Amino acid sequence: MPGPKSKLPAVLALIASLLGLLFASNSTLDYAKHLDRRLHDVHCSFIPGAPATAEAEACRVAMYSPYSALLKEHYWGGIPISLFALGAFAFFTAFAVYLLVYGPRAPKLAWQFFGTVGLVPLFVSLIMFTISVTKLGTVCKTCAGIYISSILLAIAGILGVLASTREAPAEPRATVGPALSLIWLISLATISLIPALVYAASAPDERPYLSKCGELKQPKMKNDELVKIATSHPLQPTLLFEDPLCPTCKAFHERLVAENIIEKLDINLALFPLDNECNWMLDTALHPGACIVSKAVLCGGSNARAVLEWAYEEQEYLSRAGKNGPDVLRAAIKQKWGETMLKCVDDRKTDVRLNNHLHFASDNNIPVSTPQMYLGSHRVCDEDTDLGLRFTLGQLAPEVLK
Amino acid sequence: MKPAALAGLGTGVVLALGVTLAVRLWVSGAAERLTTPEAEKPKVAVADQAEVGYCTPQFKQVLERVLHSCGLAEGDSSRRGCQPADVKTFASISDADFNALFTPLKERGAVVLFDQGEDKLDDKAKKLLEDKWFARKGARYFFVVARASKSGTQDKNRALSHRRANSVMYHLNEVANDPELEQKVGLLWLGNEFAQLSKDYCSWPSSRPEEKCEDETINRSAFVSWVDCRL
Lengths: 402, 231
Prior knowledge:
The complex is a heterodimer.
Chain A: H1 8-33, H2 57-64, E1 69-70, E2 79-80, H3 82-102, H4 108-117, H5 119-136, H6 141-164, H7 179-202, E3 227-229, E4 236-242, H8 247-258, E5 265-271, H9 290-299, H10 304-313, H11 315-323, H12 326-337, H13 339-346, H14 348-363, E6 372-375, E7 378-380, H15 382-385, H16 389-396
Parallel strand pairs in A: 4-5
Antiparallel strand pairs in A: 1-2, 3-5, 4-6, 6-7
Chain B: H1 3-35, H2 57-69, H3 84-91, H4 95-102, E1 110-113, H5 123-134, E2 141-146, H6 154-176, H7 181-184, E3 185-189, H8 215-219, E4 221-227
Parallel strand pairs in B: 2-3
Antiparallel strand pairs in B: 1-4, 2-4
C-alpha cells in the first residue's frame, strides 16, 4: 500500500484518465465519421494512437450493435455512449491533476470522492463487457481499452483512499467543506453530458437521404416464390436478399433479432449466394459453399427461418466446410437436417429455384452485395441497415418499433 | 485559490472546451461531407444477366434480329420462330459466318440428333436437352437451331426442320414447368437451304456420340444452347 506521501495513486489516476480519454476519443471519432453515410476504417487496437484500420470486425460489430448508443430512434446512429466516457474521463483527468498538484496534502474528502466516483466507469465497463461477451460474442479492442482504463482508475481511487487515511507528520492534509463534493459531482455530470449535447445539437439531418437508394423494378418473382421467413407479428412487408454464409448478413440478422424488430417484419427472402458455383455475377467465390447452403434454406419450406438461423450460427464451420468441397457441406446438412433435406438439396428442381432467385436479383438490377433490405419496394441504403437501422425504421416503418 | 485547485480547474476547463470543440468539429465535418461529398461513392457491381466473351456486337446483332423478327421479344405466340427465308433476310450474313457465330457455344450447347426423316426425340436426346436446359445460369435466351440434311426436297426439309424445332419446344414445355418458356426460347428452322453444318461439327457434344457422324447426319439435328449475352 502506498504511503501518505506517495504520488503513485495520483499518477496512476492521471495515466488511467488520459488513456480513457484517448480510447473514448477514438471511439467517438469513429462513430462521428460515419454520420456522412460512408464506410470508414475504425480504430481497433490496444495501442494508444494506433491508426484506424479496415480490419476491425469486432469494433464494427460493437459499433453497429444496439448497445453502442442511446436514442437511436431519434438520432441517426443514436448518441454514442463513448461521448459520456469522453466527458467523464476529461473530468477525471482534471481531478487527477488537482490531486497530483496537491500531493500528500490532498484533502481526504477529495480522495474519497475520487475513489467513489472512480468506480462508476468500472461499473459501466463491467456491464458493457458482459454485453459484449454474452450478446455480441466479441470484445472490441477500443472498448477493452476503456475497460482497462476504468480498472486502472478504480485501482488508483482505492489506493488513494487507503493512502489518505494516513498523514505525513510534517504535512497535514487540507480540509474542504462537504459542499465541495456536491460541486464536483455536478461538474462531473455536466462535463459528461456536454459532449453528448453538442453531438446531438450538431448531428446532420439524415432524413432526406433515407429514400434515395432505389426501388425494385419487379417486386414479384415471375415464375417462382420467394422464401417466407416466419415471424410472430408480421406487419411490414419486407424483402431481404441474403447469403447464408455472409458474415454481414449474419450480423444484420442478429441486429434485427436483438433490436426486437424481426418479429414485426413480414419477410420474403431472396437467396443471393456470393458463390460463383451458381452465381454468374461473380468471377470468384466470396463465400464458397453458399450455393449449397442456400439450397438447404430453399428446401427448408416452412422451416426456412430455422435453417437460415442454423446457417448463421454455424457460419464459421460451414464456411470452412465450403472451402473443403461440396461433400463436407452436404454431410453437415445431412447430419443436421436428415436425408430428405439432402435429397432436396441435390434435386434439379432446387437448382432451378435458386437460379430463379438469382434471376430475380438480376431482373431488379440490385447491387451485387448482401444483405439488402427493401421495405415494400423501397431499398434501404446499406448504411441504414447498420448504424442507422432504428432511425430509418422509425421514419419509414414506425409500427415496427412499437 | 490554491494552486492545486487552479491546476485542476484550468485542466478541466481546457479539456471540457477541447472535447466539446473536437466533437463539434467531428460531427460538422461529417455533416459537411454528407451535403457536399468530396468523392463519388464507390460503384458497386449491379446484378444482371450473364455476358461472356463471345457476345460480339455482330453476334448480338444477329441474335437480336432473331428475337425481334421471329416474334420472341414481343411474346407474340401467333408468330413464333424463324424459317430459312426469314433467317436469310434478317441475318444478312453468309452461311459460314452464321455458323461461325455459334462456334463459341460449343461447350455451352449441344447437338440433338434425329433419325433420317424423323422429328422424334429419342431418350438420349431428351436427356441431353434437359441437361442443357437446366444449366441455365445467367442466360436469358435459349436458342434452338433445327436443320435437315440434303436428302429430299427443299420444301420437305423445311417442314422437317420445323417439326424438329417443335419437338424440342414440346419437350421443353413438358419438363420445364416454366410459364415464361415462350419468352425464353428462340426457334430457328433452317431446312437444308441455309447454314448447313460441315463434318467439323461432329466433334461437338451430341446426343449420339457413339454413332458415325457425316455431313448428312450432323444436319439431321437441332443445335440447342443458352446464350450468355445481354440482348
